[in-house]
Amino acid sequence: MHGRVLIAMLLAALIATPAFADRYVISVLILVFYFAYVGQAWNLMMGFTGQLSLGHSLYVGLGAYVAAGLWLHAGIGPWLGVFAAIAVAAAVGSVTGWLSWRFGIEGVYFALLTIAFAEFTRIGFDHIDMLGAAGGLFLPVNAEEAGQWWNLRGGPLLFYYLALALVAGATLAVAWLRRSRLGYQWVAVREDSEAARALGVDVFRAKMIAMLISSGMTAVGGVFYAFYHRNLFPGQVFEMGRSIELILAPIVGGLGTVFGPIIGAFILTPLGEALIAATERSGFNAPGTKAVFYGAALIAIIYLVPSGVWPWIARRLGFSEHRQ
Amino acid sequence: MSSILFNVVVQGILTGLVYGLMALGLSVIFGVVRVVNFAHGEFAVIAMYAAYLLFSALRLDPLIAMLPIALGFFGIGYALQRLLINPFIGRPAHEQFILLVGVAIIIVNGLLMIFGPDARPTNLSYAFDSFAIGPLFIDKVRTYAAIAALAVTGLLFAFFRYTHTGTAIRACADNLVGAAVVGLDVKRLYALTFGIGLACVGAAGTLMVTIADATPALGPAYTLLAFTIVIIGGLGSMAGALIGGILIGVSEACAGFLITPSMKSMFSFALLIAVLAFRPEGLLGKRT
User: Fold this and answer.
1) How far is A297 from chain B (nearest CA, A)?
2) What percent of chain B has pLDDT over 70?
3) Which residues of A touch B218 (CB under 8 A)?
4) What pLDDT was estimated at residue A105?
5) Looking at residue B68, which CATH number applies to its domain?
6) Pairing mode, strands B130-133 and A137-138
C-alpha cells in the first residue's frame, strides 16, 4: 500500500515542479516524460510479449508526419489529427506484424525486419515532396496562434503538463493491461509460445493486439514530438538511432515492469544532459564525447544489472513488482 | 543503353564482392557464436580509417595494408570476445544487443572525436584507370578490390573446410553440446571465430576505402548493409553472404543508375522484406 502513497507523492511533486523550476529543468523533464511515454509503448511489445522491435521510430515518424501534414495541408488540428496518426501507425504496424508472424519470423529476424521497415520508410519519406522530402517539414510559428492550446501552440508549461499526462495515462493503461486477461496471455507468449498455444491462447492474435496498441501509442508520442519541436526531417525522425534511443529507458529501467520505463528515462535523460553540461564546462569541445560516455554507461548497466534498475531498487524498498 | 547497363551490372558485382566479404564476417560470427554483431559496420569504418592513415603516412597501398589490418582486427576480435562478449553468451538477445550497441556508439563517436565528421579520401594513383574489355570499361580499383575480396573469401572457405581448427569451429556451430563433450575448448574457439569475423571486416573495410571515403557516419549504414546481405543470403551461410553481397551490389548499382542514387538502399530493403516474407531463412540458409 505504501507504494501507492509514494506514487501519489511523486506525481504531486511533478505537478508542482514548474512553480520553482527554471526553463532548463522543465525542458529536460519534458524529454524525460517523452522517453518514459514511448518506452511504455515499446515495453508492451518487448517487455510483455517478448517481441524485439528495433524499428519503433517508424511509428513515431508516421504519427509525427500524419499529424503535421494534416495540420499544414488541411488545417486539421492535432487533437483530431492524432486519431489519423494512430490509425496510420496501427495499420502499418499490423502489416509488419502480419508479414512477420504469419510466416513465423521470430527473434533476431523479427528485429531486423522492423529495422528494414523503418529504413524503407525513411528513404521513402526523403522523396515525398508534399511532406518536405529530405529538406524537412516545418510547422510555422504565427504570432496570432500563440496561446492556442487547442492547436498545441503554447509555452513549455503546456507541453510539460501534456507530457506528464501522457506518461501518467500510459502507466495506468499498462498497469491495467498487465493484470488483464490479455496481459497474462502476452506473458505466456513471451515465456513459451508453444505452451501458450497448447493452453488455447491465440498466439498470433495476442501478438497482433500488442503490436496495434504499441504502434498506436507510439504514434501519439510522434504527434507530441512534431508539435513540440515543430520541424521534421526523415533522416532524423525515422533513423535507427531514434529507435535505439527509445528502447533504452525500458531496458535500463527494467523490461516487463510497469515502472521500469519511467525509472530508466529518469536515469538516462538527465545523465545525457549532465554529460553535455560537463563536457561544455571542461572546455573539451569535441563532438561525440557525450555519446562515448553514454555508450560506456550502457555497457556498464547491461553488464551489472541486466534485468534493469527498477527491479533492483524495488527489491531493496520492499516492493513486489518483479517481472511477472 | 544496354552496354551502359551491362557496365553498371559488372561494377555492381565487383562492389558486391567487397560487401559480401564484410557480410561474411557477420555471418561467421552469428553462425558459430550466435551473437549478432550490431557494431559490424562500425568496425569496417575503423578499418577504413586505419587504411587511410597507413596510406597517407606510409603511402601503403590498401591492397597491401589489408594484411596487417586484418591481422590487427583478428587480435581485437579475439580480445573482445574473451573479455567483453563471453559473459553474455547464452543471455537473452536484447542484452547482447545493448552491449554491442554500446560498443557501436563508442566507436562512431570516438572516430568523430578523433577525425571529425569530414570524409577522408584515399587518393590512389590508379583511382581513375580502367580496363577496357570490348564494350566494357571496368574500374581498376574495383577489380583489384573484388579480386582481393574473393581471395580472402577463398582462404576462409579452405580454412573451414580443410584445417583441424576450422572443422572444430564448424562442430561448435552444428552441435555445441557435442563439441564440448568431445573436449573442444569452446571458449577459445568462440574467441577465434570472433577474431576471424573481425578479420573479414578489417579486410573488407580496407578495400572499401578504394570505393568510398572514410567518415564516421558510414558505420550504422554499413551495419545495416551487412545485415541486409546476410539475411538475404541466409544467416550463418558463407556462400549465402557472398551471393547476397553480389545481389545487393547489383541492385544498388542498377537502382542508382536507373532511378536515383538516393533511392538505392530502398531497393535493398525492399529485397530484404521480400526475402523475409517468402523465404525467411534466406536464399541459402537452413531453417533453425
Assistant:
1) 8
2) 99
3) none
4) 78
5) 1.10.3470
6) unpaired
CA count, 13 A, side-chain hemisphere, A321: 22
Residues of B in contact with A241 (CB under 8 A): 220
User: Residues B112-133: pLDDT tens digits?
Assistant: 989 988 888 888 887 778 888 8
What is the domain count for chain B? 1
Closest Cα in chain B, distance from residue A109 (Å): 8
Number of domains in chain A: 1
Residue B287 pLDDT grade (very low, low, confident, very high; cuts 50, 70, 90): low
A79: containing domain = 28-239
A17 assigned to some structural domain: no
In a domain, B288, yes or no: no
User: Is A307 inside any structural domain?
Assistant: no
Q: Predicted ipTM?
A: 0.85
Which set of grid coordinates corresponds to residue B101? 550497441
User: What does the buried/exposed string (b/e) look like for A77-107 if buried means 16 or more CB atoms within 10 Å of the residue's CB?
Assistant: bbeebbbbbbebbbebbeebbebbbeeebee
- State pLDDT tens for residues A233-278: 998 899 888 888 898 899 889 989 999 999 999 998 898 888 878 8
Q: What angle do CA A193, A196, A197 make, to 5 degrees?
A: 90
